[in-house]
Each structure stands twice: as C-alpha cells, then as structure tokens.
Amino acid sequence: MKNIFTTIVTIAMLAIIGCGESWYQDVDPLLDVAEDRELKDREDLPFLIKGVKVRLGTVHDHVSMLSDLLSDQLEFTQNVENATFPSYNQIDGMGKADQYDDGSAFDDNNSLGYAYTDLGQLRKYADLLIETVSGLDASSATADDASAFFTGYVYGGLARHMYATYFALESGGDSGSPIDDSPMIYSAAMYDYARSKYTAALDYASDDEKRIVYSLIARTYLYQKDYASAASHAAQGMTDGDAPLVSEYSAMSTNEYYQHAGVGRTQCVVAERFLDYVVADSGEAVRLPVQEAPTTTGETQRYIQTKYDEASDPINIISWQENHLMLAELSLRGESVVVSAADAVNAVRGVHGLAALTDVTLDVVYAERDKELFGTGQRLPDQNRWDSWHTTTNTGTTHQEDIFGAWKFLPVTRSEKNNNPNI
Hints:
Layout: H1 2-18, H2 20-25, H3 45-70, E1 74-75, H4 86-91, H5 110-134, H6 143-166, E2 167-168, E3 176-177, E4 185-186, H7 187-201, H8 207-223, H9 227-234, E5 245-247, H10 256-260, E6 269-270, H11 273-280, E7 290-292, E8 303-305, E9 315-318, H12 320-332, H13 341-351, H14 362-372, H15 379-386, E10 392-393, E11 401-402, E12 410-411, H16 414-419
Parallel strand pairs: 2-12
Antiparallel strand pairs: 1-6, 3-4, 5-9, 7-8, 10-11
Helix pairs in contact: 3-5, 3-6, 5-6, 6-7, 6-8, 7-8, 8-9, 8-12, 9-12, 12-13, 12-14
C-alpha cells in the first residue's frame, strides 16, 4: 500500500514539473502596470504627459522644501509639537549637533533619498516622453505631439536645473549630479544641458509659453552669474499679468509645504526674520502669512507658514514676478534692461498693495526675493550667489544652534554613490 501511495505521489510531482513551463507562461499580463516603452502609441501621449507633470509635482515641492530647510528660510526644532523627523533635523544646518558633526553622513537621509529618487524619475520620464513622440510618424502629428515635445523638453530641463541648483557630491564642492550612472556632471555642464532642453521646447511653444521658457533660461544664466546672457533672455521673458508655470497637487498628492511645513503637520517652521518683516511693515502679512505653531512652554513661540494652507495649493515654478526681480537685479549689476530696478520691484510689490520703494539696491532686491519667492526653493541659490550663508539655525530663539558643517547643497545620496560605479 505504501509503495502504491509513493508511486502516485511521484507521478503527480513529475506531471507538475513537466507542465511548469506552460504553467508560468500562461499567466495573464498585469492590467495596471506597463513597461516604459510599451506605451509608444499616439493615443498614449496624454497619459504620458500627465505622468511627467504628476512626477514634477512630487519632485518640486520635496526638493524646494528641503532646500529651504537647508537654507535660512525654514528651520526645525523639537520644541514644536509633532516635529519629530530626524531626517529634517539633519538637513536643517547639515551639521549642527556638535563641533565633530560635519554632515558627512547626511547623504544617508530618508527624506532626501525620496526626493532624489523622484528627481531621477522625473528626468527619465521626461526623456522617455521625447523618445516616444519622436518615434511616431510626423505626418500624422496632432496637437498631442506638440504638447508632448513641449512637456518633455521643459520638464527635462527643469530636472537638470534642479540637479545643478540643489545637489552636490561633497561638502564644499560644486553642485551637480550624475545622470543614469554617468560620472559626476557639475553645474556648468548641467545648466548647459538644461538650456538645451529649454531651447528645444521653443519650437513647440505658444507665445505665452515662449516667455515662460525664456524666463527659465534667464534664471540658469543668473545662477551662473552670466548677467549679460541672463539679461538678454529675461528681456524676452514673462511680463506683468502672465500666468505662472506651477506644480500641481491634490488631496491625494499633497503640497509638501502644507504637509510638513504648515497646517498639515508642523515639522518645519519659518525663520524669525519673517516675523520681523511683518512687524516692520504690517502689509507684508499679505504675502507672508503665518500662524502660531504649538511650542514648548518657556521656549520662543514659533510660527508656520500659511501661504500654502490647503493640501492642493500649487507652487510657482516661474512667474512674471520672479522675472521682474531678475530684471531689477540685472539692472543693478550693470546690464541694460527695459525697466528700472525700482519700477520692476515696485510692480511686484504693487500686487500685494505694498508701498513703492524709492531707493532700490542689491540688498533690497535680495530681501524682496526672500519675501516674494518664499516657499519656492529660491533661497538656497540666492544665499550661495550672494555668499550670504548662515552659521546658526533657529536663529534669535531660545533654542538657537550653531552650524559646523560646510554643506551648501543637498547631498547626492549614498544609494547613488553605492550603485554608480562612475562616482
């Protein structure tokens, strides 16, 4: 009996092994997942365009907020209720625990890792969008083709702009990043790559979109201190009344400033000088709205931003106001532009009902950029350009701390370093 049972089991096992190949091959393909290059038809373009824009949203708010935290615009303190993320504590100052903490281990940062990975995906998705639409029969092109080219080139340029502006391989080093396991691409080359994408987008842009692109190009030159090139492009850039280029959010994919530097959850608070701005001119509360954060008794009362007080609030990528402030700065740096520094600054202030200024200097422009562009990721590059780095965080409060590290950019992640043989 035992032998009969053993024989039956053996035959059954052999049958299973024999049909194993067809067993696995006959599984239906997944319905909700597609390989990148499987979406290659013209009818797929709207879906691919939407995917690039959605990924831009998750990148723009994360990278901008983290850069603001590394800069002197946002701060982190556990004296505020619910401020518990050690990854934010690391980024705020990048080396503030003691004199031996130089930030050398901060490339292994959870919050930073997500942002850097998402940025790599944005770059990939934008480039794949160009690859896909380029492979279609141009004689049958539709409006979706032009939209795909414009989106792929602009958002591919934005990805490279963010690499050049916000990331670096080492403390005290030049900014930039590898791409797709490449050697390190430093800022000069990376900004060139960004501009090549932006320039390619012009062929597919409306007049309004061309002004957006010229403003984006002007900003890359401004950040490189090539003021003549910045001026020539800003002159063709956005004008008063133009709608901004924005990253978009929803209740399902929330604005990170709302989520972790605002009323969603108080992780990051505004620097004290933003309160000083409002004390000096109460009208500034229009563009710098704040509210009290729950703070430990006996400690300096801290405040959160409410510029983004809804989960779905969009964030400006570029606006006519920023273009005007670029023109003001370029005028003061000796470039010939179409508007005076005072007129450019006052046009921006006028949107908020603020009084016109009569004496506009570079220091005034620096402060106006701090206020007008708050919460858009522009403070970190401004501090670097003006060589105006801070040496403390939670400055002017009962929990002020010294910064000992030399990081002035977000670090390329340890995962990238471990997996890229070329850096």
